[in-house]
Amino acid sequence: MFDFLIVGAGFAGSVLAERLASIADQKVLIIDQRDHIGGNAYDYYNKDGILIHKYGPHIFHTNSKKVFDYLGHFTAWRPYEHRVLASVDGQLVPIPINLNTINKLYGLQLSCHQLNDFFESKAEKIDRIITSEDVVVSKVGRELYEKFFRGYTRKQWDLDPSELDASVTARVPTRTNRDDRYFTDTYQAMPLFGYTRMFQKMLSHPNIKIMLNTDYKEIIDVIPYRNMIYTGPIDSFFNYCYGRLPYRSIEFKFETIESDVFQSTGTINFPNEHAYTRITEFKYLTGQKHPKTSVVYEYPQADGDPYYPIPRPENAEIYKKYQQLANAMTNTYFTGRLATYRYYNMDQVVAQSLSLFEKITQRQSEKHVNGQKVFQLHT
């Protein structure tokens, strides 16, 4: 009898497995239909010996000391601040848009104060910010929106920004200084030996058993357990009774190059040319020294593994129906990007799982049945 069956060995499931096993002394079975732990953050050495991320670049950043310190129990950190260039009008310019971006793009020599005036002169007044287009146009105007955002968004989501929730482009801020870091979080670092090594340490507790290459529906009636934590797609859990929740997927094309360096920064975005959205060179992220280098091209698509919930009002309505079913269940918990249909960063998933662990332990009570302690939740 397992105290917890956890479906999914990514960040959401692994954090909860580790906490329940090491702090609450629970017996945990964590299963995943893939042949590896780590979820989409899984990394490995390719045949050339270069450490790559199988499901596209994963760059860790957070403002939460609690999250950073927690993960630090399982990995040393390599400081890394990610920088991104965008290919626009035949030039490579920094994104998020900042002072250097505008000066290079237009051949100007604006100061920070002048840049603020520049943006205000371009911005369009929009009374209600509803869509992703509204977010950008109201800040920097339509010309920069067309150059940097519209094409990229249409490739990524197969929707015009006017059809997407404001949260999508709100993730990419606009700056009036020269800060060309993609993120400004307090803690920016990469696991020194990679994500997979971190997950291996996280799941090494003797109370944790792992089953890979396993669909939970194959074993759910065979292996006894008291509680479930589910991190997969919520619509799949309920057999799509309200229809499928739409996701965007990505096809990753990897290439190893007989050169020490391929491009001038970790990631280059291509808003307006090519079928791919961006190219990432892994050695920038990992700090690995190697005579060759490896890159990945990302081609967004409709079919494939579900990576990005599509933030539109009609999809939110479908999710609410599934959420009501989930809330009505006892001793079953839903967490993570797919189970809550939210576009979370890695640190947000960790924070969510740490919070859920606290919620679970607050609701637990110990009692003796036939002289043995059991874990019970008040429902």
TrEMBL record:
According to its UniProt record, which cofactors does this protein need? FAD
Q: Tell me the domain of life.
A: Bacteria
Membrane-spanning ranges: none
Q: Does the keyword Oxidoreductase apply?
A: no
Q: Name one GO molecular function term.
A: UDP-galactopyranose mutase activity
Q: Record's GO cellular component, any one?
A: cytosol
The EC number(s) attached to this protein equal 5.4.99.9
Per its UniProt entry, what is the enzyme's top EC class, as one word? isomerase
Keywords from UniProt, A to Z, are: FAD, Flavoprotein, Isomerase
UDP-galactopyranose mutase C-terminal domain location: 147-343
- What InterPro entries does the record point to? UDP-GALP_mutase (IPR004379), UDP-GalPyranose_mutase_C (IPR015899)
Coiled-coil segments on the chain, per record: none
Q: Which Gene3D superfamilies match?
A: NAD(P)-binding Rossmann-like Domain
Q: Which family does it belong to?
A: Belongs to the UDP-galactopyranose/dTDP-fucopyranose mutase family.
This one is known as: UDP-galactopyranose mutase
Q: Which organism is it from?
A: Chryseosolibacter histidini
Q: What is the lineage of its organism?
A: Bacteria, Pseudomonadati, Bacteroidota, Cytophagia, Cytophagales
State which gene encodes it: glf
